[in-house]
Amino acid sequence: MFTEIERDADRFLEKHPDAETFIPDEKDGQAGHDGLLQLMTLLHNGHVNEARNIILQAKAEAFGCMLQAEHGSSHDYILRWIDRIQA
Fold first, then answer.
1. 58 confidence band (pLDDT: 50, 70, 90)
2. Cα 59 to the chain's mean position, in Å?
């Protein structure tokens, strides 16, 4: 079992030697929800404006965010966070 995991990790690192900058493809729906994994990766790597633009484009295209909370969606939360750190 662990041999297979090690092989998978080795293959991943061969394809993506700088794992810190890897952004998963979420189009198949298996890597995350609503592009959140991609957004978190962008934010982690300092691409704040790109993350903001992705969210604003999704909102303009009426793309609904699946994760909803009392104070809005996860996209709304991220936009508020971006506004706060850029203030």
1. confident
2. 16
